[in-house]
Design a protein that fits this description.
Layout (H helix, E strand, L loop, with lengths): L4 H29 L6 E3 L3 H11 L52 E11 L11 E13 L6 E16 L2 E18 L24 E5 L3 H10 L10 H8 L8 H21 L7 E9 L9 E9 L2 E7 L5 E10 L13 E2 L23
Antiparallel strand pairs: 1-3, 2-5, 2-7, 3-4, 4-5, 5-11, 6-8, 7-10, 8-9, 9-10
Length: 370
Amino acid sequence: MSITGTQWRRFAECVNLVNRHAPSLSHLKKEMTSRELPDLYDDCSKIRSDLLDATLHDILPGRKSRIGMTRKFVPQPYHLVYFNPATRLSSLLPDGTDPLHSPGAPFTRRMWAGGDISFDNHLSYKASALFRCYESIKEVEIKGNEGDEKIFVTIQRSVGYMAKTGPQSSMDLDPITENRKLVFLRERPRPSDTTAPASRTTKHPHKPDARHTLTPSPALLFRFSALTFNAHAIHLDRKYCEEVEGYRNLLVHGPLSIVLMLQHLTGHLLQRLRLAESNDRVITFVTYRNLAPLYAEEKMTLCLRQKEEHLWETWIEGPDGGLAVRASVRTAENPPIHKVREKRDTIAEQPSLDHIDPVALAAGAGMDLS
């Protein structure tokens, strides 16, 4: 097959682009994936789950107050509000984010691009217990033309209970494993107006089995920021959003979108269980992608559709009906029997929460990554 002159020119442009990026990309990948991120420790207090319940009570359908009620397990995916670093104010970047997952200047703008979560077992409330979140930078990718690159950083997390064995404590089992993908962009020129970046509107091809519309308020975003110890200005400072980032309002957190989608699905599963339509009651795996921004004070619609037995599609539509977040979810009657993972290390005694070094909390909002 002959190759046209245009095809040769495109091929040469690709080679030149790869060659320009290769040295810096190689250095960036090596530097970031070799970072030793401190582990995060949390006691997984029921109080924080109660606070999130109170925050979601008025905006999700069929909610019953569980504040003060006895329960054994952390609701799915409430683990997203645990394992937050006690980062000092002096360590935060100018936009309020933590620097430990950042590639550094000039890639100063951070967004939450997507990820996946495996629920291998329930995360239990345990009196006087300590849980550990082991975190590492798994992968670094660079995409886009020179001068308009996007750097994608995949963070791998494993959450487990610190089991006490004799005089030593060790990481025992991982009820939850997670991959978070963040995207870092170059600092944008100061916007001349408050028009949000343009994005394509994509509609979901199917009608949902169930849907629920809500309007996220600045108070909701503030509370979720507080629960996750997240000072990112895109969720808190409208003037910053308009004048620095070029968005028309505060952006909804990426993990808040996941909490809303999975709690909506969980409520639907429980309703089907009561009606004897299905025995599924827990989520075992979710993979998701953020496609477009969701804004405070603008309607968003949670949608779900059963694709096949134990498999669901769930998504969020923006005010124009376009896809903002899309996910695929697997469900089951009970969590899979989790396997004992190889213990990573042992430590002399159970660590104190007062002496844990900070590590970055990935936080951001959806954006058009196409």
